[in-house]
Design a protein that fits this description.
The protein has 5 helices and 7 strands. The chain is of the alpha/beta class and 155 residues long.
Amino acid sequence: YKIHNAEVLFREDSTMDEFIDVIVGNRIYIPCLYVYNKIDQISLEEVDRLARSEHSVVISCEMKLNLDYLLECLWEHLDLLRVFTKKPGQPPDFEDGIILRRGVSVQHVCHSIHRTLANDCKYALVWGRSTKFNPQRVGVSHLVADEDVIQIVKK
């Protein structure tokens, strides 16, 4: 591997194969969520054992059990956020949000609406948790938070 001396600090439990994969760079480990369906057909002890395991959700589609919790876990594990748009003089459109990854800026929101809008954006008015005041005038580098409302002002 052409590494003669190294001091390595592990901040999680890893195997030697995982360490070599990271050094070589030919594998990427992504997070996963195990979803177990049809829990109405197994014993309570088995459901309890499955539910207590790490990164697991137990559901029953037929009985509509735990579907809301599954949705919450998906949003959390996929690191997604919703941004709602607002036209000037009109209320925000809470029906149709833009779904983006966490850590995006106003520029990413503009680009997801239309690819040329990011270049034409003068500033944006943002309502929500990412601002100190409602509304706050922000630039294209401002990071948005979940359920923020954004109004884009063009040049």
